[in-house]
Amino acid sequence: MFEQTFRNIDDVLWKEAGCATELDYTEQTSWMLFLKYLDDLEYERAQEAELVGKSYRYIIDEPYRWSAWAAPKTADGAFDHDEALTGADLIGFVNDDLFPYLQGFRTRATGPDTIEYKIGEIFSEIRNKFSSGYSLRDALELIDSLSFRSQKEKHELSHLYEAKIRNMGNAGRNGGEYYTPRPLIRAMIQVVKPRIGERIYDAAAGSAGFLCEAHDYLRYGPDGQGDGSHLSTSDLDTLQARTFYAKEKKSLPYVIGIMNLILHGIEAPNVVHTNSLTENLSDIQEKDRFDVILANPPFGGKERKEIQQNFPIKTGETAFLFLQHFIKYLKAGGRAAIVIKNTFLSNGDNASRALRKELLESCNLHTILDCPGGTFLGAGVKTVVLFFEKGAPTRQIWYYQLDPGRSLGKTNPLNDNDLQDFVARQAGFEDSDNSWTVDVKDIDPDTVDLSVKNPNKAEAAPLRDPEVIINEIETLDRESEEILEGIRGML
């Protein structure tokens, strides 16, 4: 129903000089979608209040409501072209009046967990990239045709929005770091099995894919086919307000993550715009901890010395700091599934060895899933997923080497069927040609080498897929660019 509308919005954005990439398309679509969603939500709440004879206090003041400036209507419900701003008037209103008004919510809100605060945060982090008021008018009219009034409509919009995020990831450059393949996320959730009443956390949320999928798992069942009718009002309230928690450092994924959670039915997401690594781990108390942690932290980053001071094991590698953060934030008995570079399993430096030791001693690292090259588009690195429970040391590790039987790439991505065997065998830690068990007593206590060595297959140097090689070159180019930027900053 809405697919063509999304295509038309992209066509409008394509003609805009300020919008050059899929990232820009998603960003600009997001702020307009958010305001339309807010207008539909307020309309719904006002109707409900009227039915019970109460008055409703609007969050957004009259002149700034979507229905006043973006899509004014005549008495018979037709679009009012006489009232609608366009051209330079529209751009002037959006840049000089609307955005400053919405940014002001951050100081006016009663607290950071309110929808008012989220409005202020979003519009402080994003800017209007339309330069033509005529293009913006076209885009607004298209967005106005989308509706958030029913759960079915929200569900369809969430699928289309997910496709946008996927395209953003496929576009390479920075987009890939916000997108973890959904089949992999779903398999991780099926192994961890979150339950209603548990608090779920991602400290490097990106576009919030882990939390959105965990929401769908809890609301619609593991196969996603339920209608949510098995949940009580109290369960739904718990899902809304006390289940999903996230932090994200970068502005664009922060905004996209909030929009993604909203489209999955969470009205005021608990997403905080912050760098999780600035927190000192020694300050974390029991009340701050979580039952379930699902994450794909950024890897390859280099953190400054003062950030490293917050961690017992000092290292510049971002992903290794995040892993310490996650272990500390898990409750005793809490469960985690974390994506990490496969070199973590065998790196010989002191920090990597100390971190592997810490993981084995303080947690039960029961499962390691070895992902094939090409699982992550735009990232020339191989990854593994670590599954662990906090509170008891590791006795045995069950390894699974994922082999979809084909080269993965943009035109041939990972799918749910590829992970079915892993999920089925993991439930009983079954050994097979692709899975085996290692006893911790057999791991060298000095090197603590946990690398993936399938005893059922001869170690042959695999021929690498051209797409994986290209991804690796792109990753190295990006890293060189960042190093040069850093050097430029010192000059």
From TrEMBL:
All residue ranges annotated as the N6 adenine-specific DNA methyltransferase N-terminal domain in the record: 8-72
EC number: 2.1.1.72
Molecular-function GO terms, alphabetical: DNA binding; N-methyltransferase activity; site-specific DNA-methyltransferase (adenine-specific) activity
Domain of life, per lineage: Bacteria
GO-annotated biological processes: DNA restriction-modification system; methylation
Reaction equations catalysed: a 2'-deoxyadenosine in DNA + S-adenosyl-L-methionine = an N(6)-methyl-2'-deoxyadenosine in DNA + S-adenosyl-L-homocysteine + H(+)
Pfam families: HsdM_N, N6_Mtase
Transferase keyword on record: yes
DNA damage recorded as keyword: no
SUPFAM superfamilies: S-adenosyl-L-methionine-dependent methyltransferases
Keywords, alphabetical: Methyltransferase, Restriction system, S-adenosyl-L-methionine, Transferase
Occurrences of domain DNA methylase adenine-specific (ranges): 153-459
Stored Gene3D superfamilies: 1.20.1260.30, Vaccinia Virus protein VP39
Transmembrane segments: none
Family named by the database record: Belongs to the N(4)/N(6)-methyltransferase family.
Protein name per its UniProtKB record: site-specific DNA-methyltransferase (adenine-specific)
Lineage: Bacteria, Pseudomonadati, Pseudomonadota, Gammaproteobacteria, Chromatiales
